[in-house]
Amino acid sequence: MTRLFITFEGIEGCGKTTQARRLAKHLKRYGISVVFTVEPGGTRIGKGIRRILLNSRNKDLAPLAELMMYVADRAQHVEEVIKPALDEGKWVICDRFSDSTVVYQGWARGQDMWLVKTLNKRSAQGIEPDLTFVLDCPVEVGLGRALKRDVESTIKGQSRFENEKIAFHRQVRKGYLKLARENPGRFIVINASGGRDSIQHEILEHVIRVSKLGIPG
Questions:
Q1: Contact assessment for residue 149 and residue 141, using Cβ atoms and an 8 Å cutoff
Q2: Cβ burial, residue 5 (10 Å; 0-12/13-18/19+)
Q3: How far apart (Å, rounded) are the C-alpha atoms in residues 91 and 36?
């Protein structure tokens, strides 16, 4: 069985983390060796970087510094988690990867796109996802979910991106949809406004089609 590297992307509150976890759990149920991981924070070192990046008190974090921190997290993540897993023939499901950096730091923050793509390629050691799901929903819907999640979370103060102006989030959504249009062979846009079960079923159908797995959707 050919291993796959699958990533989940989308605006804040789109439900990508829930669906990424659900997919990993479903595949494991059928005996597939799967590594589920996240960015930022997929390693011990990355967790420290994540706390800085998401801390709502760090309003003065410079865009270039933000970019470099995401790239540093990815370099460690690929070296320590993603590349070893893929080399062992395991599937990897990642909640955010290099496309997030293109959209958030490139499109929305206005960082030099050549620099963003160059750093992405180097930090990822040339590794690209085989399949990327963009969970798409209106910005107002996603932010409403994200802010509700943050209120209910036991980990406080990790809402730096949720606190951005709505224009920022609209730019993020626009960036993801542009990437999907430019790369139809890798990207699949999922309407994330529906119920969790129906979204999961749609994602599974695409994974089964691409991988030719003989498992129930």
A1: no
A2: buried
A3: 9
Whether residue 207 contacts residue 133, with contact meaning beta carbons closer than 8 Å, is answered with: no
| Residue found under tokens 């149920």 | 29
Distance between CA atoms of residues 92 and 207, nearest Å: 13
In three state form, how does the secondary structure of the chain look?
A: CCCCEEEEEECCCCCHHHHHHHHHHHHHHCCCCEEEEECCCCCHHHHHHHHHHHCCCCCCCCHHHHHHHHHHHHHHHHHHHHHHHHHCCCEEEEECCHHHHHHHHHHHCCCCHHHHHHHHHHHCCCCCCCEEEEEECCHHHHHHHHHHHHHHCCCCCCCCCCCCCHHHHHHHHHHHHHHHHHCCCCEEEEECCCCHHHHHHHHHHHHHHHHCCCCCC
Question: For residue range 48-69, what is the model confidence (pLDDT) as tens digits?
Answer: 999 999 998 999 999 999 999 9
Letter for the amino acid at 119? L
Mean pLDDT in the chain? 92
